[in-house]
């Protein structure tokens, strides 16, 4: 197995993969905000939610659905800001994952990553991290 990466590049590839995986897990998990509603514990993130209220028309009351799931549609995400956050954070996670997987392939394939490709990948990785961090922090 020939590699086009130096020792520092191999460390970068594995750390990139770990950070991209952590970022993607954080994006998909619904534990960004925790609280309570109707005396039940609730949590939600930009992409998913747990224990959410639903109007039961047959009984004419609001009941809590005690399960986790995605929003029914993009328009079901509570606000425009939340939708923007979902798109930007998802884009950031995608960019981080793209660079990490390319870097891991560079560990196995010779002459895949040159100095220029490494610099471009670093720039893309910076952009992906900036998208993920700024939106996750409320910009």
From TrEMBL:
Reading the lineage from the top rank, the first entry is Eukaryota
Annotated TM spans: 87-109
Q: In its UniProt entry, what is this protein called?
A: LHPL6 protein
Q: Does the keyword Magnesium apply?
A: no
Q: Predominant location of this chain?
A: membrane
Q: Which residues form the signal peptide?
A: 1-21
Question: According to its record, how does it sit in the membrane?
Answer: Multi-pass membrane protein
Ordered alphabetically, the record's keywords are: Membrane, Signal, Transmembrane, Transmembrane helix
| A Pfam short name | L_HMGIC_fpl
Q: Which GO terms describe its cellular component?
A: membrane
The protein's location, in the record's own words, is: Membrane
């Amino acid at each position: 197995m020939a590699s086009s990466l130096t020792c520092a590049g191999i460390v970068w590839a594995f750390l990139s993969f770990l950070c991209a995986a952590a970022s993607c897990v954080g994006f998909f998990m619904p534990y960004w905000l925790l609280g309570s509603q109707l005396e039940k514990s609730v949590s939600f993130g930009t992409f998913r939610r747990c224990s959410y209220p639903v109007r039961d028309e047959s009984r004419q009351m609001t009941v809590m659905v005690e399960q986790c799931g995605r929003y029914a549609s993009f328009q079901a995400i509570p606000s425009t800001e939340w939708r923007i956050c979902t798109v930007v954070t998802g884009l950031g996670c995608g960019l981080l994952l793209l660079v990490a997987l390319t870097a891991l392939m560079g560990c196995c394939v010779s002459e895949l990553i040159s100095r220029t490709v490494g610099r471009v990948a670093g720039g893309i990785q910076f952009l992906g991290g900036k998208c993920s961090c700024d939106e996750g922090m409320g910009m």
